[in-house]
Specification:
By secondary structure, the protein is mostly helical. It has a domain of about 55 residues. It contains 3 helices and 2 strands, in the order H-E-E-H-H. A two-stranded antiparallel sheet has the order 1-2. The protein is flat and about 50 Å long.
Length: about 90
């Protein structure tokens, strides 16, 4: 791929990423409007659509507390991984 072609593809990538970000922001704004309309309701029906917005409880490891309480245990079970990050600046 020539330098010109690469630059063109990168420009196209940046434009597409921008469109995706705009669409995601618009989708989030629509979701927020629907959530505001729902208030405390957990389910809503509108024509053919059924919307649910229910509380979900999950358990997560508090890594900061674990590091403070048992740093040797954290070190023993910590795994280092290497990956590559793609970034266009």
């Amino acid at each position: 791929m020539s330098s010109y072609e690469l630059e063109s593809r990168l420009r196209e990538l940046r434009q597409l990423q921008s469109l995706i970000e705009e669409a995601q922001a618009e989708a989030e704004a629509i979701k927020d409007t629907i959530k505001a309309h729902m208030g405390d309701a957990q389910e809503l029906r509108a024509g053919e659509y059924k919307v649910t917005w229910k509380p979900v409880t999950s358990s997560r490891l508090d890594s900061k507390a674990l590091k403070a309480a048992a740093p040797e245990l954290v070190e023993r079970f910590t795994k280092t991984v290497t990956s590559r990050r793609f970034c266009v600046a």
